[in-house]
C-alpha cells in the first residue's frame, strides 16, 4: 500500500469503479424541465430511469451551487404522487445496526422501496410530514440508485425536505451530527458499515431518528411487521436528482438540497476539541501521523480535517478516495483487514501514530509505533484523560458506559473517577437514552467503536482526534529533539495505574447457521444447569447467564444478548452471534482476564489468554458444532 495514495482530491468526492445504470453523462439526453436556465452549464438532473417524463408536473426551483449568489430559477408546478403496487419480501428484519443484505437482494425491484415505505408506515405522521430528513451514505455500490429511491418515497410520503450529502456521501457520525444541528426529524444512512461493497457484496440501510440516534427496537420491530403486509409504495413523481452538485431543487412543497457532507461535522469537531493543541502536534517534524481511510467514507473527511485544518502532511492520508468497492477491500479497521496499515506501523522506522476508520466512518483503530491499542483500552484511556485534554469535557464526563462484551478497563476508570457506569447490550442504539438523560458522556464497544454524547453514534474521526489530543497535551512542552511521550507510553502508564484487562475476540465468519444456532442453544442449556462454584478447568464460576438489559430510562427490556461465563477472578468468556452479517452465521467469542501485576503487563494478549481461550473453545464445543478449526479474524 502506498502511503501517499491521496495525490489530490477528485472533483467528485466519489471515484466510481462500476458503471452505474442511472448515471447520465450523455449530453444528448432530453429532459422535460430543460427549459430551466441553469446557472451553470452542467445538467442538474441525471434522469435515465425516469420513464414518464412527459407527465411530469413539478415545481422546480434551482439554486444551483451554494457558491453562487444569483437568484434561483423557479417553475411553478405541483408535486404529483404515484402509488406503486408491491408485494412483501421475507426477511427484512434489521439486525444490530440496520438492514444488511447482499447488493443483489437489495437490487430486486421494490426491495429497498418496500422497507422505506414500511418505515414511513411505522412512524406517526407528525414525525415526518413537512419535516426534514438527512440522507447520507458511505459511497458503496448501489448508493446512487438507492438515494433516488429514498428521495422519491420521502416526497411521496409528505416529507418537506431531504438534505442529501454530495454524491450521496455522508459518514454515519456526520449524519447524526447534521440531524441534531439542523433539528431534522431523522435520517437515512446507506451503508453496510464494515461489510465489503461492490456488486457481489453487501448493502445496507439504517434509520436514525430526531436525536440522531439509531432507531430503537420498538421502531425496527414495527418496520419489520409492516414489511410483511405491505401492498403499496407512495412515490413522488419526480426526476432523479443530480447528487454531484451542491444546490436545492423544489417540487411543490417538497425540496431536495445537495449539501456539503463535511462542513457541519467539521464545525462540531472544532467545538469539541482544541484544534490548535492538535495542530501543534501534527505540525511537528518529529511526529509522524498516518490515517488510513480504507477507500471508505472518511476519505471525504480526512483531508479537510487532518491536512487542511490540522496541518498534517498531505501524504499522511492513505486510501483517501472513497470507492464503490472500497478498492476491493474489507473496510473494517482491525488487525486483519487493515493489515497494510498495521505493517507500516510495525515496520522499520514506522510512524508515531496510525489510525483507520471503517466503511461508514463510525469505527476506529488506534496504533502507535509497533503498538496496537485495543478498543476496550482505548475508551478507558480517553475517559481517563478527557477532562484534562478535551475542552468538551472540561467539567468532567457525566457517566461512562460500554457494551457487555467490551472489557472491564472502563469500569475501573469509572470507579476511580467516581462516575456513574452502565453496561448495555452490543449495538450503539442502547447508549442514546442514557445520553439524552444526561447520564452518559463517553462510551465504547470492543468492536472498534468509541464515542461520546456530542452525537448519538460512535465516531471514528472523533476517536482519532481524542487520541491526538491526549498525545498533544502530554507533549505540549517538549522541545524539538526531546523524546516524545508515545502511544505505548500512555497505554503502559494507564495499565500501571489501573491494571490491565487482557482482551481478545475470535470471529468465525459465515458459519453454517444450523451449527452456530445449535452451539448457542447448547450454551444456554449449560447456563441453566450451572451454579456458582462450578469448576471450569482451573477457573471457578461466579455466575453464568444470557445477558438481559433493562433500559434505566424507559424500562424496556432486551434479552438473549450474549451467553457469558464470569469466573471468580473476574475473567469472562462470552459467546454471541453477529447481527450484522449478510450470509450464514458469524460466531463471536470474547475472552477477558484482568492482570493487576505491572510486571506481567507486557505479555502478548494471545499468550496471556491462552488457557482461557482453550477453555472457551472446549466449553462451547465450537469445533464440533461449527466444524471450524481456526477463527477468521482475531482481534
Ligand atoms: C457489530 C459489533 C457491534 C457494533 C455493530 C455495528 O455487531 O459487534 O459492537 O455495534 O457491529 O457496527 P455484531 O452484531 O455483528 O456483533 V457498524 O460500524 O457495522 O455500524
Ligand atoms: Co460502521
TrEMBL record:
Chain ranges of the Alpha-D-phosphohexomutase alpha/beta/alpha domain: 92-231, 264-367, 376-495
Record-level GO cellular component terms: chloroplast; cytosol
CDD domains the UniProt entry points to: PGM1
A GO molecular-function descriptor: phosphoglucomutase activity
Protein family: Belongs to the phosphohexose mutase family.
Quaternary data: Monomer.
Name of the protein in question: phosphoglucomutase (alpha-D-glucose-1,6-bisphosphate-dependent)
Organism: Sesamum indicum (Oriental sesame)
The gene coding this protein: LOC105179246
Amino acid at each position: 500500500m502506498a502511503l501517499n495514495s491521496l495525490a489530490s482530491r477528485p472533483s467528485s468526492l466519489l471515484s466510481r469503479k462500476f458503471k452505474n445504470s442511472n448515471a447520465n453523462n450523455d449530453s444528448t439526453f432530453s429532459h422535460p424541465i430543460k427549459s430551466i436556465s441553469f446557472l451553470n452549464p452542467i445538467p442538474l438532473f441525471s434522469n435515465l430511469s425516469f420513464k414518464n417524463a412527459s407527465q411530469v408536473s413539478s415545481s422546480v426551483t434551482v439554486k444551483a451551487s451554494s457558491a453562487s449568489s444569483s437568484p434561483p430559477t423557479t417553475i411553478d408546478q405541483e408535486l404529483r404522487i404515484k402509488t406503486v403496487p408491491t408485494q412483501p419480501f421475507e426477511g427484512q428484519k434489521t439486525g444490530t445496526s440496520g438492514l444488511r443484505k447482499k447488493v443483489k437482494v437489495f437490487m430486486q425491484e421494490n426491495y429497498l422501496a418496500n422497507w422505506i415505505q414500511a418505515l414511513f408506515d411505522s412512524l406517526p405522521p407528525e414525525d415526518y410530514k413537512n419535516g426534514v430528513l438527512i440522507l447520507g451514505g458511505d459511497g458503496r455500490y448501489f448508493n446512487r440508485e438507492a438515494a433516488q429511491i429514498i428521495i422519491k418515497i420521502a416526497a411521496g410520503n409528505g416529507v418537506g425536505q431531504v438534505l442529501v450529502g454530495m454524491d450521496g456521501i455522508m459518514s454515519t457520525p456526520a449524519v447524526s451530527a447534521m440531524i441534531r444541528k439542523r433539528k431534522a426529524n431523522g435520517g437515512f444512512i446507506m451503508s453496510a458499515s464494515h461489510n465489503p461493497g461492490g456488486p457481489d457484496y453487501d448493502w445496507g440501510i439504517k434509520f436514525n431518528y430526531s436525536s440522531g440516534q439509531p432507531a430503537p427496537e420498538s421502531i425496527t420491530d414495527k418496520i419489520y411487521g409492516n414489511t410483511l403486509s405491505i401492498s403499496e409504495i407512495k412515490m413522488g413523481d419526480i426526476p432523479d436528482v443530480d447528487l454531484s452538485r451542491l444546490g436545492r431543487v423544489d417540487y411543490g412543497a417538497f425540496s431536495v438540497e445537495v449539501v456539503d457532507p463535511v462542513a457541519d461535522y467539521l464545525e462540531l469537531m472544532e467545538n469539541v476539541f482544541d484544534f490548535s493543541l492538535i495542530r501543534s502536534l501534527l505540525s511537528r517534524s518529529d511526529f509522524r501521523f498516518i490515517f488510513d481511510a480504507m477507500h471508505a467514507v472518511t476519505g471525504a473527511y480526512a483531508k479537510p480535517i487532518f491536512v487542511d485544518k490540522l496541518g498534517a502532511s498531505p501524504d499522511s492520508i492513505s486510501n483517501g478516495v472513497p470507492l464503490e468497492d472500497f478498492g476491493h477491500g474489507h473496510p473494517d479497521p482491525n488487525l486483519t483487514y487493515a493489515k497494510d496499515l498495521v505493517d507500516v506501523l510495525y515496520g522499520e522506522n514506522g510512524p508515531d501514530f496510525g489510525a483507520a476508520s471503517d466503511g461508514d466512518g463510525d469505527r476506529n483503530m488506534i496504533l502507535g509505533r509497533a503498538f496496537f491499542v485495543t478498543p476496550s483500552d482505548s475508551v478507558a484511556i480517553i475517559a481517563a484523560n478527557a477532562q484534562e485534554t478535551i475542552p468538551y469535557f472540561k467539567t468532567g464526563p457525566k457517566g461512562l458506559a460500554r457494551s457487555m462484551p467490551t472489557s472491564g478497563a472502563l469500569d475501573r476508570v469509572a470507579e476511580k473517577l467516581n462516575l456513574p457506569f452502565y453496561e448495555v447490550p452490543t449495538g450503539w442504539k442502547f447508549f442514546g437514552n442514557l445520553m439524552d438523560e444526561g447520564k452518559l458522556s463517553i462510551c465504547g464497544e470492543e468492536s472498534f467503536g468509541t464515542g461520546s454524547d456530542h452525537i448519538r453514534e460512535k465516531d471514528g474521526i472523533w476517536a482519532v482526534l481524542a487520541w491526538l489530543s491526549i498525545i498533544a497535551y502530554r507533549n505540549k512542552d517538549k522541545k524539538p529533539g526531546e523524546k516524545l511521550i508515545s502511544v505505548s507510553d500512555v497505554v503502559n502508564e494507564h495499565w500501571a495505574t489501573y491494571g490491565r484487562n487482557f482482551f481478545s475476540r475470535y470471529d468465525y465468519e459465515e458459519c453454517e447457521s444450523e451449527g452456530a444456532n445449535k452451539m448457542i442453544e447448547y450454551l444456554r442449556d449449560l447456563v441453566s444447569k450451572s451454579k456458582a462454584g462450578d469448576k471450569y478447568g482451573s477457573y471457578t464460576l461466579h455466575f453464568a447467564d444470557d445477558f438481559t438489559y433493562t433500559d434505566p430510562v424507559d424500562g424496556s427490556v432486551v434479552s438473549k444478548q450474549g451467553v457469558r461465563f464470569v469466573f471468580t477472578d473476574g475473567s469472562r468468556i462470552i459467546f454471541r452471534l453477529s447481527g450484522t452479517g449478510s450470509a450464514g452465521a458469524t460466531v463471536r467469542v470474547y475472552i477477558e482476564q484482568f492482570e493487576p501485576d505491572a510486571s506481567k503487563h507486557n505479555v502478548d494478549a494471545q499468550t496471556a489468554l491462552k488457557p482461557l481461550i482453550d477453555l472457551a473453545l472446549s466449553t462451547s464445543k465450537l469445533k464440533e458444532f461449527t466444524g471450524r478449526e481456526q477463527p477468521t479474524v482475531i482481534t
